Structures are given as C-alpha cells and as structure tokens.
Amino acid sequence: MEATMTVERIVEPAFTLSSGPVDAYPAVLRALSRTVLYDFDPVFQHFYEAVTDKAKVALRTAAPPVILHGEPVLGLEAAAASLIARDDVVLNLASGVYGKGFGFWAKRYCAELVEIEVPYDDAIDPAAVEAAFRERPDIRVVSVCHHDTPSGTLNPIDEIGRIVAAHGAYLIVDAVSSFGGMDVHPEACQADIFVTGPNKCLGCPPGLTLLAVSGRAWDKMKANPDAPRASILSILDWENAWRRDQPFPFTPSISEVNALDAALDLYLEEGPEAVWRRHALTSKACRDGIRAMGMTIWPAREAIASPTTTAVRVPDGIDADALLATARDGFGVSFSSGRGETKGKLIRIGHMGRTAQPLYAVVGLAALGGALRRLGANVDAGAGMEAALAVISNQ
Amino acid sequence: MEATMTVERIVEPAFTLSSGPVDAYPAVLRALSRTVLYDFDPVFQHFYEAVTDKAKVALRTAAPPVILHGEPVLGLEAAAASLIARDDVVLNLASGVYGKGFGFWAKRYCAELVEIEVPYDDAIDPAAVEAAFRERPDIRVVSVCHHDTPSGTLNPIDEIGRIVAAHGAYLIVDAVSSFGGMDVHPEACQADIFVTGPNKCLGCPPGLTLLAVSGRAWDKMKANPDAPRASILSILDWENAWRRDQPFPFTPSISEVNALDAALDLYLEEGPEAVWRRHALTSKACRDGIRAMGMTIWPAREAIASPTTTAVRVPDGIDADALLATARDGFGVSFSSGRGETKGKLIRIGHMGRTAQPLYAVVGLAALGGALRRLGANVDAGAGMEAALAVISNQ
Amino acid sequence: MEATMTVERIVEPAFTLSSGPVDAYPAVLRALSRTVLYDFDPVFQHFYEAVTDKAKVALRTAAPPVILHGEPVLGLEAAAASLIARDDVVLNLASGVYGKGFGFWAKRYCAELVEIEVPYDDAIDPAAVEAAFRERPDIRVVSVCHHDTPSGTLNPIDEIGRIVAAHGAYLIVDAVSSFGGMDVHPEACQADIFVTGPNKCLGCPPGLTLLAVSGRAWDKMKANPDAPRASILSILDWENAWRRDQPFPFTPSISEVNALDAALDLYLEEGPEAVWRRHALTSKACRDGIRAMGMTIWPAREAIASPTTTAVRVPDGIDADALLATARDGFGVSFSSGRGETKGKLIRIGHMGRTAQPLYAVVGLAALGGALRRLGANVDAGAGMEAALAVISNQ
Amino acid sequence: MEATMTVERIVEPAFTLSSGPVDAYPAVLRALSRTVLYDFDPVFQHFYEAVTDKAKVALRTAAPPVILHGEPVLGLEAAAASLIARDDVVLNLASGVYGKGFGFWAKRYCAELVEIEVPYDDAIDPAAVEAAFRERPDIRVVSVCHHDTPSGTLNPIDEIGRIVAAHGAYLIVDAVSSFGGMDVHPEACQADIFVTGPNKCLGCPPGLTLLAVSGRAWDKMKANPDAPRASILSILDWENAWRRDQPFPFTPSISEVNALDAALDLYLEEGPEAVWRRHALTSKACRDGIRAMGMTIWPAREAIASPTTTAVRVPDGIDADALLATARDGFGVSFSSGRGETKGKLIRIGHMGRTAQPLYAVVGLAALGGALRRLGANVDAGAGMEAALAVISNQ
C-alpha cells in the first residue's frame, strides 16, 4: 500500500481564546457541579429569585430581568417573535453577520423591514438612523447588534438608543457578547428588549439568555396576539417566574442557573468596573500587538473595535482555516474563525471572562505569530508581544 | 408587639425524590464541571459525534439521534411544529396532563385534532386507537405520552405503535420520563419522532432533548413548508450537526453535552437491563409499601403504574401542599406535587436515575408516613416500610 | 470445564454509613476541586490564616489551632511524641481499641505507663482517675479517647479534665470522631492537646489533623528535647505557620485545606448546636430502632452511646463479615466493621456530617434488618424502622 | 485624618507557574471531587490496588510501589528513618538545598555521615562518588536528590546509581520533582528507595508520596530494629496495604488517591514520552528566552538544567521579593522563590504537569520581563519571547 496514514491523537487545547463558547471561570465550573434540586423545592425557588435579583443588579435595571432557558439565540428569536407585531415596520441595523441575521427573524414577524447596512468592518452611523426615521416615521421597532462578534466591531448603542427613544419607537439590542465586558446596560441605551447571555463575558457555558425588558415592551408584547405563549419562544410565560411563589412554565435549566449565580457573584464581587478594565486592557494589548506584528485588525478603526474580541484580518496568501489549524495543532490555542461573510477573512481572539487577563493577549499573539510564520507569512511576533507587554506594563 | 415571628432557615433537602428535575448522578455533576471547549474546536466536534453515537446505542436506533439544546418541552414543541403539517389530521391520545397538553401544540399546527381522552388515572386502550382509525382513516399523525408523569401512569406504547404503523400514520411519542428507566425504545414502538431527555432516568440536569427521528419523519418534515428552520424550534437545522465536519446551527449547550456523555457512559456501563431492574425494584417496593401503609396509588391498576414515578393518592382530609411541606420541612425529603388536574390529588415519589435505588423507597415511605401522621392521618408507616423491605429482600 | 464462574460487577454503595471515612458533604467535594494555588502565593497565605481562624471559632479556643497535614493518627502520634518527655509518668485511660492503642505510643516516649482499662463496652469512671492520682501523684500526662469509635462509646471527658487539671497534669484528648458532632471543645474539657480531624463529623475526606494546644503544652513541648523538630511528626514546626507572613515548614495539603474551609463554613453557618442536634436525633432514632428490632447496642448503657456512631452487637449465630457483605451487596449500604478486639462482635452505623440526617437512621435499619433476615436472624425490621420514625416524628 | 490607607483586594493569580504546589490538571480537580468511599468498602479496596498497579506501570518497576499518605517530605523522612540503620555509614550528595537537607535526616539515624557538596548551581560529579567509595569502602547508603528544585539543577542519577550498585551500597533517590517530567525511573537508576510524589510533574495537589522500594531495601528495613513501625513514618506498615484483601494500617487519604488515579490515567494515556517532550520543549523555550532577554539561568550549564523548573538568576540591583511581588501583582503570575541558600538569588519558573505547555514559557517570560522593567532592569522582553517562540515553532 502506497498511501501513508497519519493518525494524530487530538488533544484538548492548552488555551481556549475563542469569542464563545469561552473557557469558563473555575468557580463557574464548580457551581455547575452543585447538587441538582427539584425546581419546585422551596430552596430552589428562593434561589431563583435571588439569582434574578443579582442579574438585576448586574444589568442595572429597575425591574427584574428574565432568564430564558436556551443560549442567547433563543432570546433573540423570542424577542423578534414577541415584540414585533404583524403590522410593525422594523428598522434593522446591520453592520455584521449577526445584525444582518436578526433581520431575517424580524422579517418573519413584521409588516415591512427597512434596513441600514454598512460594510462589516464598520459601524452604524447614528445620523443614518435619524435619517431613516425622517424618511419612515412609521418605524415602530429598531433592532441593532451592539457587538457584532463575527466582526469584532461595536455600534454606538447609546446614541442610537436616544434617537429611537426620541421617535417613540421600540429598541431591541443584542448585547450578547459585550455585556459584562464593558459599560453597556439596558437603561443607559434605552433598550426595550436587551438580550444578553452569561456565556460570553460573564464566563459561563452556553445555555441561558438574560433579557431586560422595559415596561412598555411588556405592554406591547401582551398586546401582540402573535407573541408566543405556551412555547419555548415565549417571553410572556416567564414574566413572573422569577418570583419564589410562582411556578415555572417549564423546567428551568437548574445547573446553568447555578453557574449563572456563581458568575454573577464573581462579576459583582470583583466589581464591574474592574472587570471592564481587564477586558479593555487585554484587548488594547492585543490590538497594539497585532499592529506591531505587522498585521491589521479587522475593524475599520480603533474606536469601534470591541474590548471583548479582537478580529484580525487574515493576510493575503494565507488560508484562514490553515491558520486556525496551525495555531491549534502547533501552539495549542483555539481561536474563533469568522462567520458567514467574515469567514475566511479574519480570525478572532476572544477576551471574555476568564481570558480577559492581559497576558492572554501575549498568548494569543504568540500562537498567531508562530502559526503565521509556519505558513510562510513575514510577521514580527517578537515586536507584537513586546508591544502587548508594553501596554500591560504601562497600565 | 404581640405577634411572634418564626424565621426559619430553609436548608437544602436531605433527599430529592422528585420526578424531575432529579438528583443527578455524582459522575454527571463532575462531568458538568469539565473545561468548556469552543464548539468548533476539533476535540469538541469529535466529542459531539461520539456522544451522539452513544445516544444511538442507548436508544437502539439505526440512525443517529438529534440533540436539541433545551429541556424536553423544546423537543415536544419542535416535534409538533415540524412533523405536523397544516393539512394533517392528528389523533392525540390523552391519559394525563402531558398527553392532553400536547394536543394544544398539535392543534396549533394541524388541520384537525381528534382526541381520545381517558380518566387521568387510566391508560389508553389500543382498541380505541384502532377504532379511531376506522372512523377517521385520514388520521396522519398520532401523538401519545408514554409515561404521563403527573399521573405516574404508562400507556401501551408498543401496541399503539403497531396500530399506527399498520395505518401508515406517523407516531410521535413522548417518552421523556420513561426512557432509561425501563424497556422502551423508538424502533420497538415504531415511533417516528421519539422525544426523551437526559434529565429524568439518565440522571442529568434539565437542559437537553434527545430525539429519535425515523427516515420517513425526516422526509415529512422536509416536505413541510411550515416546519421551523433557522429557529430554536427547528429539528431540520440539526439533521447533520452531529457530524464532526458539520457546523452547529447555533451554539450547543457544551456543559449539558458533557453531562449527557457521562450519563450515557453510566447507563451503558451498568447495562440498561440492570438499570431498568433498579427502577422496577424500587418502584415495586414503593408501591407495596404504600398499600401496606394503608394508602392507595394513583394509577387505577398496578399494571399501568410507572416504574419511574409512584403517584400516591392524597387521603381525604389531607391537604396535598401541607403534606409536601411537612415531608420537606420535617423529614428533609422533597417530593413532587401533582400538576394541572392532578395537583392537590396526589403526590409523586420519583425513582429516576440515582434515586432508583431500592432503599430510597424506604426513605420515601418514611417521610410520607411520618408527614401524614403529623397531619393526623392514620397510616401504618412501619408496615409500609416493612413491606418495601420485603420486596427488596426477596429480589 | 465443569466449574461455573460468577463474575459480579462490584458497584459503588448507594449509601456510605460508615464511621469514617465518611460520605463527604457535596460542598466539600466541590471545594476539593478548587484551583490549586502555590503555597507561598499571598492569596493562599491569607487563606490559610483565615481557615485557621475559622477552625479557632469552631474549636472555641483562644489561640489558633494547628493544622497537621496527615489524617488524625498523625496528630495523635505527634502529640505523644511531642508532649510526653522521657521522664514522664503517663496515665492512659483505655476503654476501647483506640484508647488502648494510644498507650503503645505513650509507652514509646515516657518513663512509665500507668493504665486504667475497662471493658470495651464501658466508659472510664472519673473516680478511678482520681484514685490513680492519689496512688501515683507523679502522673504528669493523662491520655484519653473521648469517643472510642470501634466501640461507639463516650468517656466523661469534662469530669476527667477537671481531675487532671486539679492535679496539675497534662491532658491529651482524642476527640477525632466526636468533635463537630456534639458539644465537646478543648477548653471546656481542659485539654492540653486536643486532637481532632475534619474527616469525621465535619464531613471532609481524611488527610488533615486539627490540634488545639494549650499555652502550657507549647511550653512543655518546647522544653522537651525529644519533641520532633524538622519532622512530619513535629507540632513545634507548625506553631506559627498559620500566620500569613510565615513560611510553611513543608508543603501543606492545599486541596484538603480547601475542603476544610468549606466544611468549617458549613458547620458555622448551619450553627454548631443545629449540627449537634442532627447527630443526636439521628443516633437516637437509630438506637431506638435497633432495640425495637430486637437487637442490642454495643455500649453497656444508653448514656455512654455516641451520637456519631451506633455500634450494634452482632447477634449470636451471625457472622459479622457476612452481615456487612450482605448489607453491602444486597442493600447497597456500606457499614463499618468493628476493629481489633471489637471486630466480629459488632458492626457500626456512622452518623457523621452529611449522614447525620435522621432518615439515614431508617436507611441503616432497613439494610441491617434486611441483611440479618437474609442470614436467618429473626428481627422485626418494620418495628425498628417504625421506632426510628417515631423518634424523628416527635423531634 | 492624615493617614491614608490603601486596601488592595488580593485576587488569585491568573497563572501559577510555580515549581510546586502546581496548578493541577482539570481532570485531577474533578477526580478530587469524587464521592468519598469508606476505605474498607470493597470498591475502594479494589480501586486502591488498581491505582497501585497504574503507579507501577508509570514507575516501570516490577514490584508494586508504596503510597504514603503525606506529601513527599514524609516519604523522604520515612526513607531515612527506615533504611538507614544506626551502624550505617551514609554518603550524602549535596548539590542544593534539598540534597543538603536530606543529610540532616540521614545524620539522625546513621553512625556516620560523609558528604560530597558542590556549589548549588552545579551537579555532583560521578567521579567524586567513585572516589568517596575508594576512600570509605564502608559506605552502606548513598542519598542523592535528582532534581534539586531550589536550584533547578539535575544530578547524573544513572551514573551515580551504577557506581553505588557496583559497590553494593544502597541508594536513596529523591526524584520528587523530576519523575513524570522526564525519563527517570527507579530501576533505571538502580535506586533502592526512589521517592517521588504526584504533586509535581503528575499535576496533583500535594498530599501523597510514591515510593519504589527494591527487594533488598525491604530486607534491610525489616532487619532494621529502629525502622518505624506503627507510625506515620513507617514504610514497613504499608508493604501489603495495596492488596485488596489487606487492611490499611491507618486511613488513607481517599480523595488524594482519587486524584492520583486521574493523574496516572492522564500520564499513561498521553504517553510518558509525549509528556516528557512537553516538559523538555517548554523548559528549552524558557531558557532560550531567558538568555535572549539578557538574563542568566541559575544552573552553571545548560546540560544540568532541569526540564521541570527554570531557575533564573536575579540580576544585580534587583530585589528578588520585589520581583516576585511585581510579577504577581502587576502581571498575575505566581512564580516560586528560591529556598534556603538560593532564596533571594533566583526565582523559579515551574514547568510541571499542566503548565508544561510551551506557551506557558512565553507567559512566564512576559511576566518576568515586564516585572523586571518595572523595577528598572534593562531587559529585552520582546527578544526573550521571540526566542521562546522560535523554539516552539521549530519543534
């Protein structure tokens, strides 16, 4: 037989620097292994209310948030299905794959979808939103992705929120991969439904959604005859489920709630500002390292680069999949690929939760630089790591 | 101030003998605390395929089952939404709260719902199914709950399956709380969609659905323009997601899959037959104890009593909530209440996974007997425990 | 080949009702899985001091206790080696295998060993201690085992302590298996060295000793040229190791200290009195059940029966090993055997930490009764369980 | 109030790169959280034998090794106390703090101690051992530390072993911090007692010793009337304790044995050669980085540098404690200090078990370089990291 076979034993990565699922905090992993309680046991019912309270503190909302029992795509689909009524005109703001994707759901439920789309390395201009309202004053719902993870870019959510509020429309914000890693909160951006999850910057595994819902959003959903009820997609079913004396519409994901509890404790005990600083510092070190190495970040400009994910443009002549595989096999680091339109064009280094620690930027740069060189690219990994270290040293 | 206040510290139960969420196996809890991997990491992709393979072995199907990332209500709703087309006539078999409940979902998607309903302490008679087909040969889909947990009763699923198959209709089986605790399998009962979950007899926390789907069910779903796609409710999206070289439609619940992996190992290593024996023995000991204590099981006859849950009729003059609270506070045991129509009429002692150990029947009887006596009922707890022990001793 | 082989798969017990190692609390197991820190890391050094402080609160001593890094036999041997000088006359009080055993260590280090020995189902009479001092006023050290676990009997430690103190002698107390399960503390019994461990009533795995040392015991050890130094047997080496700014003489058992931390939290948060009540209630239920079943507890009288272990006399005609094996294989319960002189004469049901929950008494009685009957004994298991339940119900 | 207070919250290190206690493998942490079994339960007794078997495979010995229940200082002291008889002449080889330290124990038990001591950045010359035997043919026991961790240096253990064997003397080897990280085994170096532990390169927490004992060492210990018996220091007590049908002399550290089991699985499944390669590569990358950064490793020459610890000379003008504190506080990395004579002169970067992953060398260099610069040293951190990456890239 001429053919040779190479059977390689695949080992777990030494470092997971993805933009989600993320390497969960050790304390979260331990919480996952807590005894599983019956959901109607009084201890669990009190506990669920207490976790909801902690989430409220973390989200800085006046009203208790809703926990949905599926990863945040559930929350996003549920938001579209619940808030958007069949006669609504929806303005969807698309600056990336996730923002664009939300439009498909919005279209499913609305009368008409209006869209502002910008290149996927750029951000929505609030002026364009203002202009859209001038042109279509009948816009009732606006949807926007704060951090479009597949691009590593941020949208100016607070400005957009002000415009939407001024026009009396409803705002759906996808802050799944930014909340917990920077200063973004539902009431600050005047979101009517603010969707996030514990599985990114809070350092949990995927499995839950956190939803902050404004009073007027509750009213609109209740008035919407098509809003899901008696369904996994229902937000309404869960309105009062956080109360210790109320039943759950269906069985909550006990262990994921245990994990969320631990993650919220970590977040609140370290202090949100301290957590955000870690994310900011790690990403700044990473970006400076990328540039010093001779590479380019994906976002069109520094100001819109996310502190929780650094998207790096794959150099000409390099295959993105080969780059990821080399970083993984040769250096033990698992990065995220691009997704949809950005797939093949960039790779992503996550800085979320546990890995939002400055030296992980150096780890990421080492693996990226080493992998690129193996593939023949001419990058100065040493300069990159040095630049990252300089940022960290001067913190 | 005259009033006195009693502030009691609520402590976790010493024993959780619920019919779900259940006290998970220790090895499952440890698996939950495994490192969280990036879902596109090659190790996770291989792992996911391997877990699917194990689930296939456990389910005894020829084709790989589907894992959905929400507890089994997701799987049930998804099955209704996907398999039932708008021109279908559906026969729903209701012998309890869950069976009846499925009818509401079926009605949402079908042209016409036909229903056979029996009292909730009884089981569906296969002859009635046969009769329904004679009357309505246009029935295309039949849905049935194998173990209607809120009643602790079983339906004759294999006989029903034969009839449905003979008429060329499609069969949806809810075996959520029976699979893993007794000899019930998708192909044996000729189910087209067989919905179960790891969170009952397999001893996992809630968070996933396991679905076995027949080839003709795949075809029917694909032909159904209304079958959910790009949705949390989609089964179709996940058809090939188990393959190591295929992407996930959205992020799977990594830690729950880790738990499922451990639970399947436990199940297959102990041996399904041995696991079922534990469930059968524990429930038999419990039922004999209940009767010897002077109480009555809820199912109309022994033959339809589930081996995974013993539903016990609450004696006249006793308040079910007070009974549960007394067992919990005074004896440290968390039982399940009834649900919907059975709420207030029965309490349930679960025998699932870890708690399907014969002596847990004695624990349950002690707590139940002790609590009943505190509430003034005249029960012979000693005779009950003695009868249970006799069953165990004579195994 | 004619012979048939029965290969039985040995499975883990469903219940561990031993008198040590005990089934650890779930929170302790989770603490064991905490990240392992470098012992000179400032967080660990602060943590170690904090754990010592908690142990001090639990032991109700003025001075910080010493943690030794081996299970309590290390602490006992170290106490003998350190406190007993070569010219000391030692009075050893032996009411069981462990008390007797300590005499062998004492003899190794002292000038002369005087011993009071009583039958191993009885307790030391304080009057005998008083008499010994009259006869031998040169007794310098007295050693006594509070709870002689292999007998399940208690010695009147507070009275003995008063007598020893009145004579100016030093007292070594082995309270390994009683502390944490009842009201026994170093200063209350005037112990100079009080040896206990987290691995019994505190619900930890074995691996550490807790030592409370009086000021005069420190002085005596320092003055003893033979007291171990630079040795695993040294107590002196660890005098200041609890201070965050002091080095450890050798590497402490990090994970065991993590477990101890969690166990002390559980103990102090539930409240020592509440914990003792659980132990007392469980053992009372067990003893009453044993008698109602027609069996006899090992201790000569109820007053000296330990609340943390119920030693049960094996009926005539029954083989103790067969009894243990039958309870284990047939009923899934792991009991403790006797030890040394009591081996073969009794079996022991532990009530320690997690298993000091009243219904575990019923579990133990069921397994014991069932096993005895299988072996042909005529016991009334139902009456036993009923009697235990009556105790629990009337708490 | 004039005084200002700075209360800093101390957080856990992001990276523990110590030379022990080491950051344990996640699978080891999970094993620590296994259910605690009664040591005389048949499952535990079988398990203990199975773990001993795995340890035998890992140690590559013909006879089962001994597990002692305390961290390796226990094993070292026990080896001295057991093997060295009061009329023995002992040759102790001291090339570092630990080697020297063993001499103190040896002296406690022997007739005469002969010592070869070399500077603590150097290694023992086998020729000197040969010369010592010529001068003192009555040497009966030779003791040597393979990897003197406080220096990060290795001794030529195989050559020394050959000489000792040729002279018919007994050899005690301390391989605590090298076994598992490189090719060193008891029979290969002809050790009579080979002391190691799971808490270094096997990635467990501290708490156990592994001892390989030759047949003639067993004979010598048995013939030694002073060899500890009925003591924590006894090796003899444990000779047969590994057998499933033999009792334990005292309670083993159940959870630590669980951890050892998992660690041995990891070691044997990855393959010892692969594990050693990781250690070698990581340390090589680290050493090359140190030099490229403009610093000096502590060992006098590359050939004697340990693959499991890189000891780095602290530059003139830099305070070692300040350096460690800066790396810890400013960069989140916990390194080891020197110890005894090497304290203040070097810092140590551990490469053991989980942290023997090439990119951890980069992490260590980043923290070290960054910290040195903060303290005013002129080091080229970028060049250091680049050099390390070059080693990794060219593997």
Automatic annotation (TrEMBL), chains A, B, C, D:
The organism named in the record is: Skermanella stibiiresistens SB22
Q: What domain of life does the UniProt record list for this protein's source?
A: Bacteria
* Chain residues that bind substrate: R348
| Gene3D superfamilies per UniProt | Aspartate Aminotransferase, domain 1, Type I PLP-dependent aspartate aminotransferase-like (Major domain)
Q: Which cofactor is essential here?
A: pyridoxal 5'-phosphate
Q: Which family does it belong to?
A: Belongs to the class-V pyridoxal-phosphate-dependent aminotransferase family.
Going by the UniProt record, its keywords in alphabetical order are: Aminotransferase, Pyridoxal phosphate, Transferase
- GO MF annotations, alphabetized: alanine-glyoxylate transaminase activity; L-serine-pyruvate transaminase activity
Query: Source organism lineage?
Result: Bacteria, Pseudomonadati, Pseudomonadota, Alphaproteobacteria, Rhodospirillales
Q: Write the protein's name.
A: Aminotransferase
Q: Name one GO biological process term.
A: glycine biosynthetic process, by transamination of glyoxylate
N6-(pyridoxal phosphate)lysine modification sites are K200
According to the entry, every stretch annotated as the Aminotransferase class V domain falls at: 106-338
